[in-house]
Amino acid sequence: MELTGSSAIVTGGASGIGAAAARQLAAQGATVIVADLQADKGEALAAQISGVFAQVDVTSTEQIAAAVKAATEIAPLRAVVNSAGIGWAQRTIGRDGTLESAHSLEAFTKVIQINLIGTFDMVRQAATAMSQNDPDEDGCRGAIVNLASVAAFDGQIGQASYSASKGGIVGMTLPVARDLAAAGIRLNTVAPGLIDTPIYGEGEQAEAFKAKLGESVLFPKRLGRPDELASMVVECITNPYLNAEVIRVDGGIRMP
Ligand code: NAD
């Protein structure tokens, strides 16, 4: 799918995998709406890639609507990447990760609300806008990529909310892709392994934690780089025959 002359939205676009995807989509010719909570980082990136920053909390259906509207006013919205998410590591580093400390009902609900419901809300609203686009030669009007995680399959201690949220994203891939096919929209899910981004926090403790995590990867024995994920995200957007798939990009890691 050709992206020149199109707009694209990347939630969580200010950081990590989302920022790398925003750069790569811009390089493919899309005008990218960097939709994130973090204005400083988001505005700086948008300026670098000739995109637009939109202050979006994905738990706000109105803010998602505003971002979709802003995108369609620039150009037909043909690509959406749902990368906004919160992890588990920030809460479990230095803690025991038990149900009591890491998973109050409030914390569980928050993770589901951001990672799963926020993703679904953007899919829903973006697909409505995409369905108005002129189809390309395949009848395609747009493509959406959601970010899950290997934690959907291999959840660790303290990860109940995170794994549930990402399992939900995996679970909705096929049924939503089936719903959207009638409108000429493809939907795929990329499930990252352990990727070196600020999601693990910053500072000495986070660096030590990430180094230890790298040893658990099958090969190569390191964390993944955001660009290595973003290239798969872009492939899912641009490859006309890739649909309804959940793709692990994880160095072959299988958690014990
Ligand atoms: P990151 O922390 O670098 O980026 C996430 C971005 O999401 C941040 O810019 C943050 O401000 C934004 N965000 C958080 N809550 C938001 C909200 N309510 N509304 C809008 N934006 C919000 O993390 P990352 O590692 O790039 O993660 C991107 C996605 O990939 C996430 O969904 C994450 O769960 C998933 N993932 C990451 C890893 C990893 O190892 N880094 C592994 C598996 C899955």
From TrEMBL:
Which InterPro entries does the record match to this protein? Answer: NAD(P)-bd_dom_sf, Sc_DH/Rdtase_CS, SDR_fam
State one Pfam family annotation.
adh_short
Identify the keywords attached in UniProt to this record, alphabetized: Oxidoreductase
Matching Gene3D superfamilies: NAD(P)-binding Rossmann-like Domain
Q: Which family does it belong to?
A: Belongs to the short-chain dehydrogenases/reductases (SDR) family.
Know the name of this protein?
Answer: SDR family NAD(P)-dependent oxidoreductase
**Species, as recorded:** Nocardioides vastitatis
